[in-house]
Amino acid sequence: MEIGISLPLDNDGFLRRQCPNCNGMFKWHHGPANEEAETADSPTAYHCPLCGQPAEPDRWFTDEQVEYIEGVAMPAMTRYADDLLRDAFKGRNSKYFKVEMKGHLDAADEPVALVEPDDMMIIVSPCHSYEPVKVSEDAPGPLYCLICGTPFAV
Questions:
Q1: What is the spatial distance between Cα 93 and Cα 100, in angstroms, rounded to a whole number?
Q2: Do the domain assignments include residue 71?
Q3: What domain of life does the UniProt record list for this protein's source (predicted)?
């Protein structure tokens, strides 16, 4: 079973992220930002531009994104389970017993889609300029490269 879920980007193509270490919010560019980014290897971990700590690529969802993903996935899984049960009992009747499924499993409504505001300012690290990030204008320094974690000043 596959469930397609889209998370919104801001008008510059950035996706909001939340550090699993410091819980700080920032954005990274979704997709390659230029030709150099297209040819670069994908890192096994990214570094938070606010605290410099690394984490695997799938650990950066915001609390709101996790809630939204769960809110979309649960109704889809409930409908899928309902269909599986209905199919499992189809044609199981005989002259000795009858199986009948009445009603449906209750599936919650899907949540309202997330909206990504155009906030934060674009920052480019000196060592990996092909991976820009967005941070709050009042982010304390130093900042850290998303790819290698090297600190830099803005």
A1: 9
A2: no
A3: Bacteria
Within the chain, residue ranges assigned H as helices are 35-39, 63-89
Domain count along the chain: 1
Range of the domain at 122: 14-63+115-152
Q: List the helix and strand counts (H, then E) for the chain.
A: 2, 8
- Whether residue 146 is contained in a domain is answered as yes
* pTM score above 0.85: no
Q: Is 109 among the domain residues? A: no
In a domain, 34, yes or no: yes
- Closest-CA residue to 49 (of 111, 119, 140): 140
Instruction: Give pLDDT tens digits for 97-148.
Output: 777 767 776 777 888 999 999 999 999 999 999 999 999 999 988 999 999 9
pLDDT digits (tens, 9 = 90+) for 57-110: 999 999 999 999 999 888 778 777 777 877 776 766 677 777 776 777 677 788
Rounded Cα–Cα distance for residues 71 and 145 (Å): 33
Q: How many whole angstroms separate alpha carbon 26 and alpha carbon 96?
A: 64
